[in-house]
Each structure stands twice: as C-alpha cells, then as structure tokens.
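Notes from hallway chat w/ T.B., transcribed later so I don't forget. T.B. wanted the structure written out for a chain they're using in a teaching module, and asked if we could keep both sequence and structure tokens in one place. Agreed to drop them here.
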Amino acid sequence: MRAVFKPGSSEARLRALLAPTLLPPVLLLATLVACSDPGSADGSVAAPDAASGEKPSAEITAPGAREATVGMAARTGKTRDPAGTAFVARAEASGGSSYEADAVRAIRYGMHEEYERVVLDLGTGDEPAASVPEWTIMSPTGDGLLRVILPSISRAAVSDGTFGDGLLDRYYVVRAPEGGMFVDVFARKPFAYRVLGLSEPARLVVDFKPAGSPLKARPPAVGGDTVLVEPRAGARIGDPLTACGYSRNFEASNSIALTDAEGRVLVRRTVLGNDWTSTWGYFEATLDLPSFEGKGTLRVGTRSARDGTFEGVEVPVKGD
C-alpha cells in the first residue's frame, strides 16, 4: 500500500507529517549531512528582482552542470559534493533546527553527471536566513513525488517551474492547509535522494538519483491551473471519496465532479483552496458516493471566464 499525499488521511501518523503545525520533534537521519564551504561564491545565475519585470535566466555554469535560478537574487555559498553520503529511498525524513526562515527566496536546479540537484534558498524578511529551519520530507518509494514541508515559511518569491528533460520534471510551491508551505518536486522515474542543510546563508539541498525500477503509480494529474494529487489516474475509488491537490483557479474555486461511463454526474461539489493570488492553494474535499461500479471519470478544475469551457484535469477511475 502506498502512502497518500493528503493531510486529511485517516492515519494519524501521516496527518501529523503532512500538517506542518503538527510536526513531530525533529529527527535528523544519520544518512543526511550538512556541509558548507565558507568564503566561496556560487557560480549560478541569480534571477533579477521580481519587481523589475525581467524573467529568470539560466546558463551553463560549469562543465557538466546546468543550473537555473528562479526567484529573488541571493548570495549563496558553493555546495561541495558530499563524497560518501549515501542516497536513500526513505518514505520520510526530517531535519533543521529553527523557525528563523520565513521565505523561499529562490529555487535552483543543477544537472550533474550522476544526479540532479534542487536547492531551496531560504530567507528571513528580505535577507538570506542564517540557518535551515525545520523541515520534513515525504516521499513514498516509487511514487515519483517528493514533498518538502516547511512549517515556518509564509511566502515565496517563486511558485512553480520546470526543470530539465532528465529525471526531474517540475515543482510547485503550495500553501499548506495548517500553516507554512510545502514544495512538491515531480520526477519522471523512481529515485533515491539525499539531503544537505547548509548555513550562512541557509540552503536546503536535495539531490536526486535514478533508482532504476518503474513507477508504482501514475504521477499527479496536471491541467490548466489545477494539480490533482489524489486520486491518481486509474485508481480504484470507494465511498467516501477524498480528492486533494492544489490550484491557482480564479477566486480559489475548484469544482469536483464524478461521472459514470455514460457521462451521468454521480456527485459534484465546489471547494475553495487556501490561496490563488500569491502561490498555489491547497484544497481537499471528501464526497459521499452513491453506488458506483465500473469505469468513471473524475473532473477537477473550473470553468473558463472567457467561454465557459472546462479547465482542469480529467482522470479515469474505477468504482469498487
């Protein structure tokens, strides 16, 4: 059974991990290490200030390593490759030591010879933070999704973006339902990962390495300004049905509808997300289903303000 990425899970342990204000005491795994190289400068290209209206840039910064920076410019120290640090395929991990940082200033990406790197530059106010705040990672093995939960973060200079054409696909910065934010990283294949917490300035580094086996589940569905995390395409659903994800739909309104094989609407509900103007807003709804067997379609999204057409995701599901 794979873990479900929704704070409304009936499993108390999963609820505590996905709801940032209910995080357990921080446990730093032995396989996660922190290192920094004071006094050296990072060769990455920082994006211009968002107020300038300029777009983020990307360029080759070193042989074999392509890095893109999105968000507010920040000075960062050079990250050393932690020789001997093992990649792991753990469902959960945690670390950090404070609640000082309150912002994600930038998200950077680098493609290296054997792994791909994502760097979260963290800040306090308008300045880089000194230390990495408390964080929790959720990543069910073979799921293709890694979630970094940051309970002290309240704002971000970037909300989403795409990576390269390799292992990693894209990311989203989402306002968490119980406070704080989380960053979802989507991968095209299963992966192992390692985490580095770097200070002065604060950076949370996650390296991803292909694991070789096929994905155990289809990735979250993406369409328009909607991401449906659960249920996944092809999932078997029952009563009650819980749907969760995030969106940037107008006025945070999300319509959830289930139709049967003949196109009859079995249940429909509108639920509001917790943001849509500043970043992606989380939504979740539990629906009571009538008797339902065979194939169906779950549609989650909104109606276009221009012509009334549906904008969102449609995933095939199966009734119990």
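Follow-up for T.B.: The chain is about 0% helix and 45% strand. Might be a good example for the class.
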